[in-house]
Amino acid sequence: QTNVQVYGIMDAGVEYVNHANANDGSQVRVVSGGKNTSRWGFRGSEDLGGGLKAVFNLEGGVMLDTGAQDGNLFKRQANVGLEGGFGRVIIGRSFTTTYDLVIKFDPMGFAPNYSWATSGNATGPSKYGMTTAFDNLIKYTGTTGGFTYGATVGMGEQAGSAADGRKYAVGGSWFGGPVGLMAAYEQINGNTLAATGNRDKTSAFHLGAEYKAGSMTYQAGMRGYKLESGKAATPDVRGDTYWAGATWAAYPWTVTGAVYHVNTKNLPADKDADPTMLVARAMYSLSKRVWLYASVAHAKADHGQLVGLSRDDPGFGSTQTGITTGIQYRF
Amino acid sequence: QTNVQVYGIMDAGVEYVNHANANDGSQVRVVSGGKNTSRWGFRGSEDLGGGLKAVFNLEGGVMLDTGAQDGNLFKRQANVGLEGGFGRVIIGRSFTTTYDLVIKFDPMGFAPNYSWATSGNATGPSKYGMTTAFDNLIKYTGTTGGFTYGATVGMGEQAGSAADGRKYAVGGSWFGGPVGLMAAYEQINGNTLAATGNRDKTSAFHLGAEYKAGSMTYQAGMRGYKLESGKAATPDVRGDTYWAGATWAAYPWTVTGAVYHVNTKNLPADKDADPTMLVARAMYSLSKRVWLYASVAHAKADHGQLVGLSRDDPGFGSTQTGITTGIQYRF
Amino acid sequence: QTNVQVYGIMDAGVEYVNHANANDGSQVRVVSGGKNTSRWGFRGSEDLGGGLKAVFNLEGGVMLDTGAQDGNLFKRQANVGLEGGFGRVIIGRSFTTTYDLVIKFDPMGFAPNYSWATSGNATGPSKYGMTTAFDNLIKYTGTTGGFTYGATVGMGEQAGSAADGRKYAVGGSWFGGPVGLMAAYEQINGNTLAATGNRDKTSAFHLGAEYKAGSMTYQAGMRGYKLESGKAATPDVRGDTYWAGATWAAYPWTVTGAVYHVNTKNLPADKDADPTMLVARAMYSLSKRVWLYASVAHAKADHGQLVGLSRDDPGFGSTQTGITTGIQYRF
Residue A191: in which H helix or E strand, if any? Predict the structure, then answer.
């Protein structure tokens, strides 16, 4: 048998949020994946000689509060490929080059409780966000010295038009001494609309920077998001997301503070939510694989617009405060 | 890598039942889980030092007759927690304290073919039963000498009302010499009805006792079930389930006989099914992990009411007889 | 713990096909399972002494292009049984005796890209094919010298009629020196129709032969398919599938050429598609577990009927040409 590993992250906790329904009620709930999405999977590699390896990965998400699968069975990773001195090429389903690069520059590491680095929550879930994973992808990742770079294509698979539905992401990062820098770009094509001959086209670019000094790490990043509509006379949807934060690490403690802000654009002034979220998190390591953590966040929107801490759930008020305490076990 | 185990139970057999449809036809079928529900999963633990461990469990059910999953992917177990001298605390989805305690006092061990200890089958499936597992749970289990005790809370997660939808179970057992005793209580809240300001509330208490003498084990148990309706002027639904049985074990043989009886209440006399089931089972161990088994059961209902052997399927006659032969493999 | 193995096949590639939609557009797509269906599972065995073993198998399909499961969670294998000098008996869900026997006589080994040995594609997907797997099955497989033989029953589980919905398959193969021979028969019962008292009945027989000479293997096979309708005055549906091919193997290369032809019957002459597919495939082994492969196929139908290379997708033209390049990793 080749080298196969069963692995996963089990992350669950209890969250309190206010403004949790239309009647302004608060809620206490069991959450799955407060720090990182709970997941399970298999991965393996086979040495082919000459520095070449075959690699595969199957990984699915799981909701620990109900035991339900989180989307498709192996939604997170379902791919096979080759890895060698040239880098790594995989085919199937996986996260994008953008996702892989940006996560290193989010102080909260895309934590569901709480980060807006994958998508900013303003007047609706997942708006102005990145596309975290592609179906039908081919992904290349390479490294040269301090540089990591890559490109991902997700085929549209529309008969008669290779460009309809096609997705791609490209970018790179560089780490040298105390400094890290990152840039990434993605474009998501919709299908051509018969009425106009145009298609929806979503693009997003990301920039990030990091500076380390002793036990402190400082990070900042931004995303410029734009949706050009294929329909005639439909204005673009635009929103820029900015974040910055600092992490202090002294084993067994890791403490992070961060701020996220979305600048919604092309909206009437009285609908311009421009939401901001402040987050703080303390983690205590019980071992290399097990952490206890507590996160607190407060979000607010301008002009009485609705806002939610979670990138997946809409909000019911113009502010929301939440506290999550949990445990994470990586196996 | 931490200690991770792939495990499961593969249990399949062939069952004959009479009165299997409205035309009184009999049926021969392949059944999954005649002795115990077929399942698969992962579990692991990580030593944190000082007697403390982190623990996790993912477990799903599988129908061996079709290969389909049995409900949510990891419906049976999806939890993470800590275990130490203080006991064990987990968070996520799991079986309840009631389930864990009562199974030790059911001579048939909750066997799908055949036991009514989790739910009594009378005029409909799963009536008058326990709630076997909770979503959104926090469960504590402790032991002190011969005592095992615990409590489970399943959060209702209704914004604005912590009590709506909340579930809890509490209980304990004691084993000393040849004697074992058990008591457990559970309460399941519905949501508040606007019309009355009340909510449905289901409660069940369980009592059990065991006595061992040589190769014989004698067990008896009961459940008192009550559903108080939140609607005005709606009578309670009540039903008490009683069981008793004996097991003779002499390796490689284990032979069990048991009787289950449900006393349905608050029904018109001519609808009062009060069903009874007699069961006998012989198991032959091929190894520590593999058994062959044969079970035979006969159920009858009073007043011409319908009854079925299975707690999941309704019956088509006022009696039903079934025979199951199968194999179980624990890996 | 008993002997448990995590295993699977990860197979993905890129396919080009022409005539991929009604507008005659071509398509480039990521495909999962070009050479063999991508899958994952668990299998194990427990030594019971005296040459007897308990065995189990859970195996599901996975679409590597999306991460979705391919049908029921463990649709491919979900069974438990015993194996010894007498052969192997399993109960649950599995492939049939026919499937197990015929795959050895298909030059392309049931490759999704491209083979019609499981089902012939003509004027619709999966017509005139075998039934690859049964629910509710009991399967026996035995070997005696060069003979392998077996029988599979899939219970209909219709109350009141054991024959309604029942399926069975029986057959055997013999290998001796350079020669191999195979014959198999299957019958699939529908349910009795009240109007006629008859039921639909599908039957298929398979014959196959193989001859090896040096690094060459020559194979040919056929299936005779018939659907007798339970409805009055409804003609049979009939179609015979024939194939032949040759494989040249010289490590690390394996090259195969094959032709498949379906003779559709009982159709008006101008609807008689009688489709033919020519296939060639080259495989290059990177290790015992990892292959690169490229397949090319061309299918055509008579009388302007539609035809598709894939047994799962309908075609949009009277010919289709496809090329698939991929990688397969067996773990």
Answer: strand A179-192
CB contact under 8 A, C159 and B68: no
For residue A286, the distance in angstroms to the closest alpha carbon of chain C comes to 28
Parallel/antiparallel/unpaired status of strands B27-32 and B52-61: unpaired
Identity of the residue in C25, C30, C289 whose CB atom sits nearest the CB atom of A136: C30
Amino acid at A192: T
The answer to whether the beta carbons of residues C293 and C325 sit under 8 Å apart is yes
* CB-nearest partner of A25 from B42, B48, B159: B159
Q: Decide if B157 and A6 are in contact by the 8 Å CB cutoff.
A: no
Q: Does B40 touch chain C (CB under 8 A)?
A: yes
Convert the pLDDT of each residue in A92-120 to its tens digit: 999 999 999 999 999 999 999 999 999 87
Give the one of C66, C287, C331 whose C-beta lies nearest to A56's C-beta.
Answer: C331
Rg (CA), chain C: 20
Cβ contact C64–A48 (<8 Å)? no
Q: What is the DSSP letter of A317?
A: B
Q: Are A318 and A300 in contact (CB under 8 A)?
A: yes
d(CA B180, CA B75) in angstroms, rounded, equals 30
CA distance A134 to A187: 12
Distance between CA atoms of residues C179 and C244, nearest Å:
15
Residue B28: phi and psi, rounded to 5, are -115, 130
**What does the block give as tokens for C320?**
């289709």
> How do residues C160-206 score in pLDDT, each as one tens digit?
898 999 999 999 999 999 999 999 999 999 999 989 999 999 999 99
Residue pointed to by tokens 């690859």: C132
How sure is the predictor about C22, in pLDDT bands with cuts at 50, 70 and 90? confident
**Tokens linked to B36:** 């115990």
For A67, phi and psi rounded to 5 degrees? 85, 0
Structure tokens at A300: 């607010």
Residue B123 pLDDT > 90, yes or no? no
Name the CATH topology of A3-330: Porin (2.40.160)
What span, in angstroms and rounded, lies between the C-alpha atoms of A100 and C147?
54
Which residues in B lie closer than 8 A to residue C53 (C-beta atoms)? none
Nearest CA-CA partner of B305 in B266, B275, B325? B275
CB B185 within 8 A of CB B202: no
Rounded Cα distance between C144 and C174, Å, is 9
Q: Are A314 and A308 in contact (CB under 8 A)?
A: yes
CA angle, A104 as apex, A99 and A109 as ends, to 5°? 85
* CA gap B54, B63 in Å, rounded: 31
Residue of A nearest to B50 (CA): A286
Integer-rounded Cα Rg, in Å, for chain A is 20
Burial degree of B300 (CB within 10 A; 0-12, 13-18, 19+): middle
